[in-house]
Design goal:
Elements (H helix, E strand, L loop, with lengths): L1 E5 L2 H17 L4 E4 L6 H9 L8 E4 L1 E3 L10 H10 L6 E3 L8 H14 L4 E4 L21 E4 L2 H7 L12 E4 L2 H5 L3 E6 L5 H9 L17 E6 L13
Parallel strand pairs: 1-10, 2-3, 2-6, 3-5, 6-9, 9-10
Antiparallel strand pairs: 4-8, 7-8
Helix pairs in contact: 1-2
The site of fructose -6-phosphate has 12 residues, from loops.
Length: about 240
């Protein structure tokens, strides 16, 4: 994995945008996208750029079950607000959190990913090493599925809701096998709370107990982290 350490998340977002822009100019058409606080500086650079997105397809990692697309806490809403409203894409896919048949929906989403192989996949990382909502213990062979959120993730996400009871208890999420099928992966992490997960991901043993460790097996991963998230890393990673 290639590691780029930036001073802060502003520079990290600019660096990540550079990689996406270059990839798109070189022919990338299908982008796997993520939500959360981490990619905000990337999307900021994106909307301020003159990059034309009208022939791009995006496929998002996840969505809460039970939230309508117009709910400000939904990932649909997040993507519209931070990127799609300002940069229209040819087609955008975000899992349907309101589907009445989650199982069939997950199969359809897998088919969408098969029909539109992801050129560049963006990831954040959880403090416990989760990628998308794939929590510790998720099989590396997993495809799109419904995930019960752990207490820790519910607590971490409650900062976006009025109270913790409003945080959805499950989500629809791409599986680890879907993520690993992307041709190129860009993972971003900012802040000291991510430092341990970043160290485990890069230096730890590959284990389903730390989902992000599987990325050691992917041939093209770039990790962009700020100095705080990189603080536990061996010196060889620091540039
Ligand atoms: C979001 C996602 C999650 C986040 C992770 C980090 O689509 O899949 O895995 O990337 O929970 O969240 P933030 O960026 O808010 O620290």
């Amino acid at each position: 994995m290639k590691v780029i350490v930036t001073e802060n998340k502003i520079q990290g977002g600019a660096k990540a945008f550079e990689i996406f822009e270059k990839g798109i100019k070189n022919g990338a058409k299908v982008l796997g996208l993520a939500t959360g606080s981490t990619p905000e500086t990337l999307y900021q650079n994106w909307v301020e750029s003159d990059l034309n997105c009208s022939d791009l397809i995006s496929i998002n990692l996840d969505e809460y079950v039970g939230l309508k697309p117009d709910n400000p806490q939904s990932y649909h809403y997040f993507m519209q607000k931070h990127l799609f409203d300002k940069k229209p894409f040819k087609k955008t896919y975000v899992p349907d959190g309101m589907t009445e048949d989650v199982k069939s929906f997950c199969k359809e989403y897998d088919q969408i990913i098969k029909d539109n192989p992801i050129d560049i996949q963006l990831l954040g990382i959880g403090r416990n090493g989760h990628i998308a909502f794939n929590e510790p213990g998720t099989p590396f062979t997993s495809t799109t599925h419904e995930v019960k959120l752990t207490e820790n993730t519910i607590k971490a996400n409650s900062r976006f809701f009025d109270n913790i009871d409003e945080v959805p208890k499950s989500a629809i999420c791409m599986g680890i096998a879907n993520i690993m099928s992307a041709k190129k992966i860009v993972l971003m992490a900012f802040g000291e709370k991510k430092a341990h997960a970043i160290k485990e991901m890069l230096e730890g043993e590959i284990s389903e107990e730390v989902p992000a460790t599987i990325l050691q097996k992917h041939p093209d991963v770039t990790v962009i982290c700020d100095e705080a998230a990189a603080q536990e890393l061996d010196d060889k990673y620091k540039n």
